[in-house]
Amino acid sequence: xxxxxxxxxxxxxxxxxxxxxxxxxxxxxxxxxxxxxxxxxxxxxxxxxxxxxxxxxxxxxxxxxxxxxxxxxxxxxxxxxxxxxxxxxxxxxxxxxxxxxxxxxxxxxxxxxxxxxxxxxxxxxxxxxxxxxxxxxxxxxxxxxxxxxxxxxxxxxxxxxxxxxxxxxxxxxxxxxxxxxxxxxxxxxxxxxxxxxxxxxxxxxxxxxxxxxxxxxxxxxxxxxxxxxxxxxxxxxxxxxxxxxxxxxxxxxxxxxxxxxxxxxxxxxxxxxxxxxxxxxxxxxxxxxxxxxxxxxxx
Length: 299
Description:
CATH architecture of the largest domain: 2-Layer Sandwich
CATH topology of the largest domain: Nucleotidyltransferase, domain 5
Order of helices and strands: HHHHHHEEEHEHEHHH
Distance between the termini: 78 Å
Number of helices: 11
């Protein structure tokens, strides 16, 4: 439906400006200006009230479009939507179902629009950078897809200790290091040392969305010719292999060890050769990572 303006005369903004100029600049009375231009006295008064420049700018024609839709939700329905959102913080879909159960006829789109108009929806932060949704490759050979993660430990004095972990999905070859810090550059240096130890080249690294694997970490890998993939949000199985290795490392290696950097380094350095050369894995048909690689891994 097309709404018509109060007038179709394209020169009306100029006429209004001239009328106001006669009153405010030349000192004419509103009645004299009305008789001179052929308009009603009330129209001249309204034009003068809208003008704030003393008759030096045109007064545009307002649209006759109604300010409220005849299909707008009633205030009672809007209040019911807001009350349910503020009370339990439920999502729009649940609020819609609850209103229907209460006998309130309203569409899901109307509920969502009302929540958005009232600023009751959680919006994405404008400072959060989206990560590249790179496709997950098949682990057909060593280095095709390598998962990396960090394990956090709380020390008795309140400080933190971190263990960087890495595992190759094809061979289950793994590597771990202890670090007192959690930074993008620290993650990149850990990966560089792991690459020197590995008997194959890393092609793609998959991590979670932690701050240690930020965009800066991605750029460092790209300069080295290694692709970086973030795990999918709310997909708990995306990093299943490295999460399983984290659990194994804590149960078989770090359990009962004093939480300190020297103790963790000694325990991990003694455990990794066993994990790679002697520990059989059910996921690779009870073989060891060394057998999958068919080479003797570097010490």
